Amino acid sequence: MDFTRVPQLKHQNSGQFFLLSGPCAIEGEDMALRIAEHIVKVTDKLKIPYVFKGSFKKANRSRVDSFMGIGDEKALKILRKVSETFEVPTITDIHEVSDATMAAEYVDVLQIPAFLVRQTDLVVAAAHTGKVVNLKKGQFMSPESMKHAVAKVTDSGNEQVIITDRGTMFGYQDMIVDFRGVPTMKQYAPVVLDVTHSLQQPNQSSGVTGGRPALIGTMARAGIAAGVDGLFMETHFDPANAKSDGANMLPLDKLEKLLTDLTKLRSTINSLD
Questions:
Q1: Which helix (H) or strand (E) holds 33?
Q2: Which of the four pLDDT bands, split at 50, 70 and 90, describes residue 204?
Q3: Locate the DAHP synthetase I/KDSA domain: which residues (predicted)?
Q4: In terms of CB atoms within 10 Å, which of 45, 54, 158, 207 comes out highest?
Q5: What DSSP assignment string belongs to 221-266?
Q6: CA 65, CA 53: separation in Å to the nearest integer?
Q7: Among 3.20.20.70, 3.10.129.10, 3.30.428.10, 3.20.20.60, what is the CATH number of 3-8+15-272?
Q8: Cα-to-chain-centroid distance, residue 123
Q9: pTM over 0.90
Q10: Domain chopping of the chain, boundaries
Q11: What's the rounded Cα separation, in Å, for the pair 35 and 181?
Q12: Whole-angstrom Cα distance, residue 272 to residue 243?
């Protein structure tokens, strides 16, 4: 993948992992700008290539009364404003074929959710926009099977594709990450570890997904040691009151310390290569 084709992606020659990070969902303009400003300052300081993440719509929800968004166009315009204000690329997930063309007008990377990564029409529609396509590995899929998802993008004439591992279902209410899959998937595309979603505890009886955020640092360090190309982390200044996935988010004020430690670890790993 040629990251030089991602507009405004800075620090590409720093030797550091790249970071996809932001809130789970766009809840409003002020919160998005506040979170983006903080992450941009930290990643610029640490020379980490950074892409702002925010879902313009949350289509996959446990309950019908769960927060789904503030309106598609409104949220997408906020993502564009983040990009223009802080000169960083942005990523959002899409759920329907019609979302691909719409979202591509506003963001630089289109993400295919894990539950939908086998949906051929959706993956091909994302590929045809010419944007970078981030394929979330299905919780039910093997690392080896992701080569077919990648092929759907490349066979559509788009070489700009990455894979994100967000864990595999372990029983009904837990996730595990099998780091043996990292070198396997790196044969097909750059690999990202979704740190925060890997620590989810889904399918709770309350209809609200749980999580184990105390293990975010452990999971992130393990990913860097295993050789991932990038990290995905959702963060919020008030996780307890976030509209989506607050149970497994990293508090924003803890981000700088964690990323500082991870850049040191990445530098050590680089020295061993």
A1: helix 29-46
A2: low
A3: 16-268
A4: 54
A5: HHHHHHT-SEEEEEEES-GGG-SS-GGGPEEGGGHHHHHHHHHHHH
A6: 24
A7: 3.20.20.70
A8: 16
A9: yes
A10: 3-8+15-272
A11: 31
A12: 42
